Amino acid sequence: MALATRRLGRSLSKRARSRISSLRAYPTLDTWMNPLTRGLARRIASQEWLKTHDELDFVFRMSDIELGGVPCVHYETETTGRQDRIILYIHGGGLVSGSPRINASMVLPSCQLSGAEAIGVDYSLVPEARFPAQLDEIDAVYKALRRFHPNKAVIVFGDSIGGGLALASLIRWRDAGEEMPAGAVLISPALDGTGASDTHNSVGGNDPLFRSNSERNCRRLFNFYAPDRKLTDPLISPIFARLDGLPPTLVHAGTREVLLGDSARFCERARRANIDITLRLFDGMFHLFHMHWGLREAKAAHADIASFIRSL
To answer: What percent of the chain lies above the pLDDT cut of 70?
Structure first.
């Protein structure tokens, strides 16, 4: 279905309707997997994400640092003060692209509204590194944060595949008996490598960023990440994990994205496990709309995240 003919609900803001109509789908999975075209795919995705930085209307600073031997980015905004909370940001990008700097517009508005500083993990991408390298790097950064800031509450914040890495990390820390973060924020998380969520089919064709066959492509991508593991492994697809013992968690998703089902299924399982879980749905919104700070819908979403962070 061509973007120009896609039907949009009247509840969306005029700017959101225009943005959805102008969005380009991510490069094909074959482009990501081919070493001859992977660099081009990364540049295309990076250009789209970097454009969203221009919408940020507040002062911010990003500094390169290292924690636990892992490169990271330290985020501060004009409201950053002596806070007792710090965000640990795990970026999206399908494991094959993105970085804490390129994807910064996802987390900076929540920093601005909450007053919290943040650390973004510059984890290794696939196929240069595969499972469990990314989880090991996140683990090293988290433990370093706990050592250097023992009196600060850590809030894990992950979007898309970063949300899946965040949840897998929480499960890992719980099972290892580590001190758990104070809370977690998962934005449109990719939690099921088997691609079993119904919304891969029911929303397919209306998600402006994901192409057709998203269920099959989901399985191919996760196999690319962990070629020697079963896709139902809880550290690969945390939707299948035991969920007791997790911290308070806020989940955001839009109704126009194929990964909506992952959020819905996870939140229902978490509710049954007596986890303090909140699911916020945003009518008509697309995957990672939070990066588009100029949209009133993104501002409302980040205000909700900031309120959750302040409540912890």
So the answer is: 98
Please, how many CA atoms are within 13 Å of residue 219, restricted to the half-sphere of its CB?
Answer: 10
Domain spans in the chain, listed from the N-terminal domain onward:
11-311
| Residue 213 pLDDT class (50, 70, 90 cuts) | confident
Sheet arrangement for strand 153-159: 60-67, 70-77, 117-121, 85-90, 153-159, 183-187, 249-254, 277-282
Residue with tokens 């399985």: 219
| Whole-Å CA distances, 34 to 47, 91, 229 | 20, 22, 21
**CATH class (in words) of the domain with range 11-311:** alpha beta
* Cβ atoms 143, 67 nearer than 8 A: no
Which entry of 117, 137, 215, 257 is annotated as an active-site residue? 257
pLDDT at 3: 39
**Coil, strand or helix: which one is 81?**
coil
Structure tokens at 309: 């962070």
For the entire predicted model, the pTM comes to: 0.96
Q: Please say if 160 is a catalytic residue.
A: yes
Strands (DSSP E) found in the chain: 60-67, 70-77, 85-90, 117-121, 153-159, 183-187, 249-254, 277-282
257 is catalytic: yes
- 158-187 pLDDT, tens digit per residue, is 999 999 999 999 999 999 999 999 999 999
Question: If you average pLDDT over residues 65-83, what whole number do you get?
Answer: 94
Residue labelled with tokens 């999206």: 92
Per the omega criterion (within 30 degrees of 0), is the bond before 127 cis? Answer: yes
What would the two tokens of residue 267 be? 């939140």
Task: Return left, alpha or beta for 13; rule: phi > 0 is left, psi -120 to 50 is alpha, else beta.
Answer: beta
Catalytic residue among 160, 169, 197, 214: 160
pLDDT of residue 5: 56
